Amino acid sequence: MNEEILRLEGIEKRYNPGRPNEVAVLRGADLTVGRGEVVALVAPSGAGKSTLLHIAGLLDTADRGEVAIAGEALGAASDRRRTILRRQEVGFVYQFHHLLPEFTALENIVLPQLANGTARAAAEERARALLASVGVESRAEHRPAALSGGEQQRVAFCRAMANTPKLLLADEPTGNLDPATSDTVFGALMSLVRETGLCAVIATHNLELASRMDRQVRLDEGRLVPV
Ligand SMILES: Nc1ncnc2c1ncn2[C@@H]1O[C@H](COP(=O)(O)OP(=O)(O)OP(=O)(O)O)[C@@H](O)[C@H]1O
């Protein structure tokens, strides 16, 4: 395997522990993904895909188990360290774009870079290059509401890539698009990922899209098994 970018080991997660509505979602999930590798995460609705991605992306914590990003084990890391790593090394894409409605496409990609300490001119240059790489450079000055669903999602990919993360996590990134648009937009995402040599974990219900990734894993009773 290439350099290890993401390692999940023995991840356990319950919601509402000790209550009648307790649900043990993850029960010892293991996954290791290397640089340049794209893994499809497939599972029925409610199996825990979002929970797993949130833990992998340091948005949530596991009850047990270890998360390591780019070789750094985060079990004992401070909240501050987790926030820095999340901002610098992880990009997220969701089913719905979550772009800031009052800002243009360009600004939506510039802002995370400014928050990360990049100078404005460099941030704008990178944002324009990213938009061009997914074919929406002509939409740079539009606000999200003036973009089609497929364009919004491409801009969301660019935002996820804004700070040149090592790890991209995507939760049903084309789940809200019609099949033809989903296909084109997924193609744009894959080219962007391939060009940058990113490591990616992409949750999808779409088995055809899953088959276009390097390998597939399935969540089965809280554990990850190869497909
Ligand atoms: N904050 C929470 N509190 C209680 N239960 C939760 C919480 N978040 C998720 N769950 C439950 O945990 C289980 C896994 O949820 P999760 O969203 O991770 O699944 P998923 O595989 O991503 O589903 P989908 O494909 O429908 O998005 C579900 O049964 C869900 O109801």
UniProtKB/TrEMBL annotation:
GO cellular component: membrane protein complex; plasma membrane
Residue ranges the record marks as coiled coil: none
Keyword Nucleotide-binding among record annotations: yes
Family: Belongs to the ABC transporter superfamily. Macrolide exporter (TC 3.A.1.122) family.
PROSITE patterns: ABC_TRANSPORTER_1, ABC_TRANSPORTER_2
Organism per entry: Salipiger thiooxidans
Signal peptide coordinates: none
Pfam families: ABC_tran
Segments forming domain ABC transporter: 6-227
Keyword tags: ATP-binding, Cell inner membrane, Cell membrane, Lipoprotein, Membrane, Nucleotide-binding, Transport
PANTHER family, per database record: IMPORT ATP-BINDING PROTEIN (PTHR24220), LIPOPROTEIN-RELEASING SYSTEM ATP-BINDING PROTEIN LOLD (PTHR24220:SF689)
Listed GO biological process terms: lipoprotein localization to outer membrane; protein localization to outer membrane
Protein known as: Lipoprotein-releasing system ATP-binding protein
Database matches in InterPro entries: AAA+_ATPase (IPR003593), ABC_transporter-like_ATP-bd (IPR003439), ABC_transporter-like_CS (IPR017871), ABC_transpr_LolD-like (IPR015854), MacB-like_ATP-bd (IPR017911), P-loop_NTPase (IPR027417)
A single GO molecular function term of this UniProt record: ATP hydrolysis activity
